[in-house]
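Worked example 3 (structure in, sequence out).
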């Protein structure tokens, strides 16, 4: 693994994030969970194993309801499960963190820009 890191130009996490976005969005749609968007923030330091996953629900109320009724935890656990299914490195799994927000908040407070929201 160390030799592989030495020869990589981009973080390993980037090999997985796009595929996982599609998988989790498909899963939430099938389960009638109103997940609007997923954004991932990956450090550009090869030795940093972190991955920040932002889950954006459609409205502030949906976000609040899902935090109260446990749906948000179910989505996080499914995301982690999907990571294991696509062979995400085990030592990277413990560095995955989740944040939640809503599309409504992004539109209201960040001019609709996810770029501004994630800064």
């Amino acid at each position: 693994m160390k030799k592989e890191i030495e020869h990589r130009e981009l973080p390993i996490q980037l090999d997985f994030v796009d595929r996982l976005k599609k998988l989790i969005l498909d899963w939430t749609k099938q389960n009638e969970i109103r997940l609007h968007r997923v954004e991932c923030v990956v450090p550009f330091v090869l030795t940093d194993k972190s991955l920040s996953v932002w889950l954006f629900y459609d409205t502030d109320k949906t976000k609040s309801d899902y935090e109260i009724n446990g749906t948000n935890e179910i989505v996080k656990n499914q995301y982690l499960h999907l990571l294991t299914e696509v062979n995400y490195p085990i030592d990277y799994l413990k560095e995955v963190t989740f944040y939640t927000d809503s599309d409504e908040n992004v539109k209201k407070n960040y001019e609709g820009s996810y770029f501004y929201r994630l800064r």
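Notes: The chain has a mean pLDDT of 94. Strands lie at 35-41, 51-57, 96-102.
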